[in-house]
Task: structure prediction
Amino acid sequence: MKVRASVKANPEKGDILVIRRGVRYVINKKDPNRKQRQKGSRAK
Result:
């Protein structure tokens, strides 16, 4: 069974890990192309 790798932020490159509504995002103001998203269990 394949498991998706977890989202990791590298603060040295300006990454910020944000959790919004159960979804993990990596956002970067310095380099906007360094974006990641990991689906989570959203409460309905």
